[in-house]
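ok new one. same drill as before - structure tokens go in, u give me an amino acid for every spot. 296 of them this time. try not to just spam alanines like last time pls lmao
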């Protein structure tokens, strides 16, 4: 039997396939009349759309054609929409990219780079402020909240952190899947769970915007550096149009367009950039063979 996250990954992919038409092939090489851009629902869809509006406006002006933003119902839906050609490009976390690239020829082309840390970010595992936990090992026996089943910083990296501390899901702690980073933070702040894993940048912004009470939570552990999300082409997109898009991203200098990514710039991306995450997925799969769904 698949563990809970494995089941949810499969369910999400099946639902996305049904919605998209699971037998639809990727479109032939073409230059569409509109660029359809896929985004992951790391937070509520309205929030994701609002934060990415400056980039949409920049791309529309730079490319000289309409640009539409689409936020998937879940991470699997965004990945599958790109796989089946319903999106032209999508901003995918390493895990979402790796899972979808097993069954489609996806091509990463750009990723954000930040001051000091470069093209990386981190996840955090947080606990209520008055939690007795001093280390990750102290979470043994508790219920831990995660975001989307395919989220890199909201599920897989925190899960790897716990594994490195000797805790295996299903054996040493109970998974609670909440779907989004902000939901995880609120669950911890309200003491609904013993701990939660989420993106450090999103956690910091939630604190800054007073979306969660800074006095109600504390960071128990920070993750290793995670390779950044990657802008990724669908299969079959016209090569000349791909180059136009690639140049548009690499040349972004609008501070507002870069703001949501906390980026100084977008830099080129290739498949091997996420090899570290491949290794973490393999480690989780070795401890929980049912965590990783079969290729679809």
């Amino acid at each position: 039997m698949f563990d809970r996250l494995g089941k949810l990954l499969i369910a999400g992919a099946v639902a996305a396939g049904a919605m998209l038409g699971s037998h639809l092939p990727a479109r032939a090489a073409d230059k569409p009349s509109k660029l359809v851009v896929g985004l992951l629902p790391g937070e509520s869809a309205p929030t994701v759309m609002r934060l990415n509006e400056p980039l949409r406006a920049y791309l529309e002006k730079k490319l000289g054609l309409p640009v539409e933003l689409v936020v998937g119902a879940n991470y699997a839906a965004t990945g599958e929409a790109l796989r089946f050609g319903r999106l032209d490009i999508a901003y995918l976390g390493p895990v979402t990219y790796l899972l979808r690239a097993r069954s489609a020829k996806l091509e990463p082309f750009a990723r954000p780079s930040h001051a000091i840390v470069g093209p990386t970010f981190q996840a955090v595992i947080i606990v209520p402020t008055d939690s007795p936990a001093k280390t990750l090992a102290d979470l043994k026996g508790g219920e831990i909240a995660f975001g989307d089943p395919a989220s890199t910083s909201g599920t897989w990296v925190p899960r790897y952190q716990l594994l490195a501390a000797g805790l295996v899901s299903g054996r040493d702690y109970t998974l609670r899947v909440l779907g989004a980073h902000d939901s995880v933070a609120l669950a911890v702040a309200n003491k609904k769970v013993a701990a939660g894993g989420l993106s450090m940048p999103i956690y910091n912004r939630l604190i800054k915007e007073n979306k969660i009470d800074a006095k109600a939570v504390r960071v128990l552990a920070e993750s290793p550096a995670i390779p950044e999300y990657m802008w990724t082409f669908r299969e079959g997109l016209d090569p000349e149009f791909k180059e136009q898009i690639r140049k548009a991203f690499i040349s972004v200098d609008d501070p507002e367009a870069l703001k949501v990514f906390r980026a100084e710039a977008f830099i080129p991306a290739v498949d091997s950039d996420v090899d570290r995450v491949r290794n973490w997925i393999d480690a989780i799969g070795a401890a929980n063979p049912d965590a990783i769904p079969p290729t679809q």
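The radius of gyration is 19 Å. and btw The first helix runs from residue 4 to 20.
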